[in-house]
Amino acid sequence: MALNATVAAANSLQETLYGGLDFSSLTWLEKQWVAWYIWIGNPIIATGLMSFLMHEIVYFGRCIPWIIIDAIPYFRQWKLQPNKIPTPAEQWECTKQVLFSHFTIELPAIWLFHPMAESFGMTTYQVPFPSWKTMVPQIFFFFFFEDLFHFLAHQALHKGVLYKHIHKLHHKYAAPFGLAAEYAHPAEVFILGTGTIAGPILYCYFTQNLHILTVYIWITLRLFQAIDAHSGYDFPWSLHNIVPFWSGAEHHDFHHMAFTNNFSTSFRWWDRIFGTDKKYLEYRARIKAAKIAMKNASKDKQEEMERRLMEEVEAEGQRAEAEVEREFSNKKTQ
Ligand SMILES: [Zn+2]
Ligand SMILES: [Zn+2]
């Protein structure tokens, strides 16, 4: 009897969501999509659950290779700050904080995103999926929008009260690692997360043409970008060595080490246009010049030189950070 009732409910849901649809024309993935929505039995729960699971699987799934790489000394030759390898205790501490913010801030935010985006015209349970030709330009727009938003909001987070009470937490690691990508104050997750989800919301408001699958692909790529940018490694095959305007770890690692410059996420152009990469470019030029000057010196001597330059930049960064905090407390006491 109970089984009959369940089957009847599933049939009526199928009729409501997918009535008149020719199932034989669907791809394998589209069939799984339909099966998920019918199995869960409630589109809001089905979408919310899938989104949260996707975020967790992609985030930690992408961090695992970096945890393994950190444990293998062979890879140190490509570590941007080779004398700073995260310890397992540090990584675990970071994981706990990240999980806490995933369940307290991101879970409700992810859950709320769908009804909100749906009310702006986004499709969720519907199949067939949009074509690649539709998805690719949309994803490019989201990358562009997020990068610009982040460039501006991140600079604001480096000032006074916003730094002291919010962004300082993310700067705990002067030599970041993959897991540290989302290690941030809940308010920062909310502020910078806006850059990730406002693009899709604005887009579907104006065009009424966006499927949540496109948003999933976008979020997956954005998570890859953020985790890789914090990985601390620059390989010869890293994307920025192939696409020169891509930021990557080589760009963002400097932001953590020097506390300044390189505020954008995916692309280098805004920092270049507004000159917020001046110190970074000078640092790279100094390393390059020193390497040429020392090309006949021993490997140890070269490494020693690089370490000294890094320490100088880091010390300068610590002074700049103290300055921001001092400005804030001066304002407070005035
Ligand atoms: Zn910062
Ligand atoms: Zn960072």
From TrEMBL:
Top-level taxonomic group: Eukaryota
Keyword Iron-sulfur belongs to the record: no
GO molecular function: iron ion binding; oxidoreductase activity
Span of domain Fatty acid hydroxylase: 140-276
One BP term from GO: lipid biosynthetic process
Subcellular location: Membrane
Gene Ontology terms: cellular component: membrane
TM region(s), chain numbering: 34-54
Entry annotated with the keyword Chaperone: no
Keywords: Membrane, Transmembrane, Transmembrane helix
Region Disordered, residue ranges: 297-334
UniProt-listed PANTHER family: STEROL DESATURASE (PTHR11863)
Protein name (database record): Fatty acid hydroxylase domain-containing protein
Origin species: Amanita thiersii Skay4041
